[in-house]
Design brief:
Elements lengths: L1 H23 L3 H21 L12 H75 L5 E3 H10 L10 H9 L8 H38 L2 H4 L15 H5 L1 E3 L5 H44 L3
Antiparallel strand pairs: 1-2
Helix pairs in contact: 3-4, 3-5, 3-9, 6-9
């Protein structure tokens, strides 16, 4: 009986080994089938990893070239359109500025001529004061004309320029709108000339103030009030009675009167320069600029 048991025990490991061997052994055909299936799955996974929006063909250099060319042409045409628009706007502004300058220059010629007439009256009064002092004052009395010329001679006419457009052009840099270099140079010279005339006007006014200080010590206020409102621009002449009346003055001191006359003479140099050179040149330059602007921009 023990022998039988031992035989059964000996047979069991063999049977177990046989069963395990059967389970572990895989046929070759099955292995190949499994490998093929795994490869197919990997290919499917790799295929689905691509973006479906991407094209399935590779671009050549011609495609890239045409895309670049179309983009370049679009940008370039946009630039040309913007440049043409800006050019049109600048040409329009240029013509507008030209019309405004013509108007200002025409007004300048009118104002300059009027200022010249005022300066002539001032210069005539200075001559009259000088003549009266040279003749001397007797009896502490003078004719009413001495009061009159003391009032007119104390004026210092200032040229009022119509320079709003020209200042805007020069200070903002908009003179670049004008392509005619000759025109730009003449406008710049005209602007500089205005500054020069202003300096002459200020110089004359400073000298005039000296005359005013001395005049208050010579004229009698009671009589001067009849002449104090007279201006060189008055269209109506002063009544003859005020010119020929003999009226007293506050002081007939010869030294003071001589100082008074000299204070006017100190202005003569500037006044003659303005009257004979500066203002005539201003009128000439303004007229030349008007003709040049009208011709350049076909303006009437």
């Amino acid at each position: 009986m023990e022998e039988n048991i031992e035989k059964e025990n000996l047979n069991k490991p063999t049977e177990s080994q046989s069963e395990n061997s059967q389970n572990e052994i895989i046929p070759t055909n099955d292995t190949e089938t499994i490998n093929q299936n795994l490869e197919t799955e990997n290919m499917e996974i790799h295929h689905h990893a691509h973006n479906p929006a991407e094209p399935h063909h590779k671009k050549n250099w011609k495609s890239y070239f045409w895309e670049f060319l179309m983009l370049f042409l679009a940008v370039f045409c946009g630039f040309l359109a913007e440049y043409q628009l800006e050019l049109t706007v600048e040409r329009h502004r240029e013509k507008e500025y030209a019309a405004l300058l013509i108007q200002d220059l025409e007004n300048d010629t009118i104002n300059t001529n009027e200022t010249i007439e005022q300066v002539k009256e001032v210069l005539a009064s200075i001559d009259s004061i000088s003549s009266s002092v040279y003749k001397g004052v007797s009896g502490n009395k003078v004719s009413g004309s001495f009061y009159y010329h003391s009032q007119i001679g104390a004026f210092s006419p200032i040229m009022i320029w119509n320079d709003a457009t020209l200042i805007q052009l020069t200070q903002s840099g908009n003179l670049r709108y004008f392509r005619n270099h000759k025109l730009v140079n003449k406008l710049s010279a005209y602007y500089s000339m205005q500054s020069y005339v202003r300096s002459l006007n200020i110089g004359d006014r400073d000298r005039r103030d000296v005359s005013l200080a001395i005049r208050s010590r010579i004229l009698n206020n009671h009589y001067f009030k009849y002449y104090s409102k007279v201006k060189p621009t008055d269209s109506l002449p002063i009544p003859d009675s005020l010119m020929i009346n003999i009226i007293p003055i506050q002081s007939n001191d010869p030294q003071l009167l001589n100082e008074y006359a000299n204070s006017y003479e100190n202005r003569r140099g500037i006044i003659n320069l303005i009257l004979t050179k500066t203002y005539p040149k201003a009128i000439s330059d303004a007229r030349e600029l008007i003709l040049l602007l009208k011709k350049e921009y076909q303006l009437e």
